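How a chain folds remains the central question behind the approach discussed here. In the encoding step, the backbone of a single protein was reduced to a row of integers, each denoting a local shape. We regard such an encoding as a compact summary of how the chain folds. The sequence in question and its structure tokens are set out directly beneath this paragraph:

___
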Amino acid sequence: MENKLNDVSERRSQKLYSGSILKIIKTHISKDTDYAGGVPLNNFYECEKLEISAWKGVLIRLSDKISRYKNVKLSNPEVDESLKDTLLDISIYSLITILLTKYYTQNLPFLAEERKDFIGLTGELLEHLIIYPSLTLEDSWDRILDLYQTYITTIREDDEIETISLYDTFKDSLLTLAASAIVSTFFIKE
């Protein structure tokens, strides 16, 4: 009897996760079309005009969303954007950061390539949802901050370091952060 209950619970979770993944894909495509004007992720490259790499620019946006999540969770003020939307944005920004670290030393991808890479990441995100369903958003974000500090320290000590390691350094933790944000949406009553 207990195995049947576990199977039913697991199927419900996977259905919820799949619905979240589809929403992430639709939202990303819609916003990328609105903000980037047909050139994938183009809006994120605007910060490079200020000599800030695109992936760091997205980390800044991500930190804003994390701060908003923490503040709304504590004080529950009147806001225009729902907490679920903030968590959805955290998931999407996490995946975009992974893509930008991947493309860091490359030319901008064609639209079809970026879409394929983004959808591929959502498949990996689904695996993370199944493997790490209980890691909190705050713990996941703290891992990102620790990794970032380690990465920056390493860069300062060795200017010859390969930027390829950037993608490998952050990918798993950003997937875990995205998964944590999705799981958090299931506990919000709106």
Residues 2-185 form one domain. The radius of gyration is 17 Å. The mean pLDDT is 78.
